[in-house]
Q: What sequence folds into this?
């Protein structure tokens, strides 16, 4: 499996961008809050923001609502340096997703509003109009597969990306509230994983795809071997296991005192992908992902918590990672 194209260091990130509202000050429960801080949110937007903060170029392929919240999201994307050339503002009754979240580790509440979500309106026409040849990699999350027309558009994007020679990366990112059933989510996400070059997910998500939590690790290993893919099996604070050809890489995490649990997965993918894009080894790229995740959970927000390249470099120099899960 060649990953050379990723070194173009320009990413097309497909999917969700929304608004996050964080109860302020940190530690406050939503029901007790009298003020909130706003931030760019949504898994795909967070990944794109993380890439840009680390010096990569990123464009979002998606849909926002044509209203004040959608305009907030567009402005925030641009403020992070994310290209919005392939983002469509859509009127009618669709609405941007909204997350109301707490910055606390114990009993952290995250309330997600996704009724009539704008990002599910990503269309085949949008995908067809995109020039995939100008990118080095396509990144998508499983959220975009939960419903049509976004589902069909996402599979079309994978096909067009592969035809153009791009590296294809999927974060399974299972959000149960967006799917009709676990069975549907397992079938559709596995289908996407089988046609992407790099598959990232946690132990629960691979268990979902396998139909049995205990079989999730075996499925990750099988995917890595069967399709000459790279599969990253994440285990939270126990680290990760990566299967790449005949390699099995086990890495631990960086020890930090977290402020909240959200954003780690998006930061991991951004740090990992940006590391590969600048020519780092697979192991060093995985460490970059782990370090980015460790930094994000110590800060308020997701997109605004993403580290810069200098912050990541200093953190990794000062904080040795655990060597094994």
A:
């Amino acid at each position: 499996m060649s990953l050379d194209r990723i070194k173009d260091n320009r990413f097309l990130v497909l999917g969700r961008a929304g608004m996050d509202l964080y109860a302020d000050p940190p530690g406050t429960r939503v029901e007790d809050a009298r003020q909130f801080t706003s931030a760019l949110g949504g898994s795909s937007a967070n990944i794109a923001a993380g890439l840009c903060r680390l010096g990569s170029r990123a464009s979002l392929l998606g849909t926002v609502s044509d209203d004040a919240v959608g305009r907030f999201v567009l402005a925030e994307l641009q403020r992070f340096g994310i290209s919005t050339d392939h983002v469509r503002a859509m009127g009618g009754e669709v609405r941007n997703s909204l997350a109301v979240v707490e910055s606390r580790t114990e009993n952290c509440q995250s309330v997600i509003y996704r009724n009539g979500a704008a990002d599910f309106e990503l269309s085949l026409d949008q995908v067809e109009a995109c020039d995939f040849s100008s990118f080095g990699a396509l990144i998508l999350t499983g959220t975009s597969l939960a419903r049509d027309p976004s589902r069909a558009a996402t599979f079309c994007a994978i096909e067009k990306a592969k035809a153009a020679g791009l590296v294809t990366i999927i974060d399974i990112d299972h959000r149960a509230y967006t799917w009709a059933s676990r069975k549907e989510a397992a079938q559709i996400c596995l289908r996407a994983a089988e046609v992407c070059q790099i598959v990232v997910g946690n132990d629960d998500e691979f268990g979902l795809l396998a139909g049995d939590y205990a079989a999730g690790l075996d499925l990750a290993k099988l995917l890595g071997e069967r399709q000459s893919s790279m599969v990253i099996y994440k285990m939270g604070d126990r680290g990760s296991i990566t299967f790449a050809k005949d390699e099995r890489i086990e890495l631990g995490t960086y020890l930090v005192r977290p402020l909240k649990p959200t954003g780690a997965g998006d930061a991991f993918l951004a740090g990992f992908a940006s590391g590969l894009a600048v020519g780092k080894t697979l192991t060093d790229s995985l460490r970059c992902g782990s370090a980015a995740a460790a930094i994000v959970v110590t800060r308020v927000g997701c997109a605004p918590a993403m580290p810069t390249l200098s912050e990541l470099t200093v953190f990794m120099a000062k904080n040795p990672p655990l060597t094994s899960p």
About this structure: Residues 22 and 189 are 30 Å apart (CA to CA). The chain has one domain: 4-16+43-63+81-87+117-318. The first strand starts at residue 10 and ends at 14. The chain has a mean pLDDT of 95.
